[in-house]
């Protein structure tokens, strides 16, 4: 992978879904990430004098810390707004919150319950809004995951990744980015937890250009066959806690354990965005096993987010 690059500036103001970026944008972003990881000092002043608001309606370890450390290491300042006790829009309207923030800060990173909240903020202001996870998407995570895979395999073209579990926000973002990066993504979910149809339709359109393949299954063993990496996420995402008991039953056959990893093939990597629910979606043996790259995914969140900030702020 080359590390010295001249890149075009990203085409849109915001990163709300991942679908606003073309295959070229997504490729450039990964190249920029490699450059930032190799030469962080070159980016020490990219955000000089800029203040960025971090608004979180839900808890976070990785996203909050990697954005805070990343922004500060690029010379910027963080204003953290804890919204875990009161949802955005309750005290004053979402456009009013966004328009006020625009008076003082140069960008917004937000983790929200509803994707529409991000869209409403972004459409009312001219500063960038970055999705730090919503009910539908988690683009920063998927970009870090594909960067991790590229580091491991050298190239993403034709790589076979299996996703097993809930067709949730992380799964939707993996689909958008797999389509743009030419990855063969095989997804196994229970029939009524399949990924969003609009996401699949977009991926199908983009895949014509990149030759990506997106396959849907209900049998995890079929999805993992020949996969170079197996990915899972929690069965009950934040915001769906009321369904937890039912979900534990439905998703039991989707646990990633030693047997399923063996069905994938020798040396298959194990991936998880974390936090993990040990003994549910994945066993300790797999999470802590020799092919697990979960901490590398976490570490790469910061580099990929620095590349996103660079793309949107320069
Ligand atoms: N993977 C991820 O987004 O982790 P946090 O919820 O801790 O931010
Ligand atoms: N799907 C999970 C991801 C957590 C990072 C959730 O939304 O809770």
Characterise this structure:
There is one protein chain. With 314 residues, the protein is α/β, with parallel strands linked by helices. The chain has 2 domains: 23-137 and 301-313, Rossmann fold; 141-297, Aspartate/ornithine carbamoyltransferase (Rossmann fold), CATH 3.40.50. It is built from 12 helices and 9 strands. The protein has a 5-stranded parallel sheet with strand order 7-6-5-8-9. A 4-stranded parallel sheet has the order 2-1-3-4, with helices on both faces. Mean pLDDT is 95; it is low at 1-10. It binds phosphoric acid mono(formamide)ester and norvaline. The site of norvaline has 9 residues, from helix 6.
């Amino acid at each position: 992978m080359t590390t010295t690059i001249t890149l075009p500036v990203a085409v849109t103001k915001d990163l709300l879904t991942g679908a606003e970026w073309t295959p070229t944008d997504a490729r450039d972003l990964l190249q920029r990430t490699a450059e930032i990881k190799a030469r962080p000092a070159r980016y020490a002043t990219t955000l000089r004098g800029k203040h960025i608001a971090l608004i979180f309606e839900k808890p976070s370890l990785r996203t909050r810390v990697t954005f805070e450390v990343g922004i500060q290491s690029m010379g910027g300042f963080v204003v953290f707004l804890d919204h875990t006790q009161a949802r955005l829009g309750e005290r004053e309207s979402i456009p009013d919150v966004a328009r006020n923030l625009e008076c003082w800060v140069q960008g917004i990173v937000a983790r929200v319950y509803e994707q529409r909240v991000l869209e409403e903020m972004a459409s009312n202001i001219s500063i960038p809004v970055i999705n730090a996870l919503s009910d539908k998407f988690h683009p920063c995570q998927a970009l870090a995951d594909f960067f991790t895979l590229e580091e491991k395999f050298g190239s993403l073209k034709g790589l076979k990744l299996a996703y097993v579990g809930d067709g949730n926000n992380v799964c939707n973002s993996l689909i958008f980015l797999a389509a743009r990066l030419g990855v063969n993504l095989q997804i196994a979910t229970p029939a009524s937890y399949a990924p969003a149809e609009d996401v699949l339709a977009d991926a199908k359109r983009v895949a014509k250009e990149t030759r990506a393949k997106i396959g849907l299954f209900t049998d995890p063993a079929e999805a993992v066959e020949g996969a170079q990496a197996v990915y899972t996420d929690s069965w009950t995402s934040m915001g769906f806690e009321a369904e937890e008991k039912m979900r534990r039953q439905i998703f039991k056959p989707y646990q990633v354990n030693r047997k399923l990893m063996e069905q994938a093939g020798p040396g298959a990597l194990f991936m998880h965005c974390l936090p993990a629910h040990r003994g549910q979606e994945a066993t300790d043996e797999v999470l802590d096993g020799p092919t697990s790259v979960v901490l590398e995914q976490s570490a790469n969140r910061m580099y990929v987010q620095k590349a996103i900030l660079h793309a949107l702020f320069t």
